[in-house]
Amino acid sequence: MVVLFSLIPATVFLVIGYFVLHASARSQGALKPFGQYLAIWLFILAGLIVFGGLLGPLVGLQGPMGGMMTEGMGQHMQRMETMQEEQLAILRELRED
């Protein structure tokens, strides 16, 4: 799941890098190598994002929904039950008055 979420920013970096590379090919002077270096840097960042998405689950990092699906969801459900019990107690008190 983490790999899929890492593909979105990696795709954005690749598209931006392509446009920077295209613009630098049409420029002259000192801007041409600067644009090429910037495009290469964006391509490297895109690769690192995908590599991090692949490596994350192997080292035990959880995805964006991973923490919620394990312990976090149980704590959330317990809190919701407690709040529901408190609301029912308040309604009972209001009915008695």
Structure notes:
The protein is 88% helix and 0% strand. It is mainly α and 97 residues long. Helix 1 (2-26) runs antiparallel to helix 2 (31-59). The model has no long low-confidence stretch (mean pLDDT 86).
Describe the structure using short key phrases:
mainly alpha, elongated, 97 residues
At a glance:
With 97 residues, the protein is mainly alpha-helical. It has three helices and no strands.
Per-chain topology:
Blueprint: H1 2-26, H2 31-59, H3 66-96
Helix pairs in contact: 1-2
How confident overall, as mean pLDDT? 86
Q: Termini, distance in Å?
A: 53 Å
Shape: elongated
Q: Number of helical runs?
A: 3
List how many beta strands DSSP finds: 0
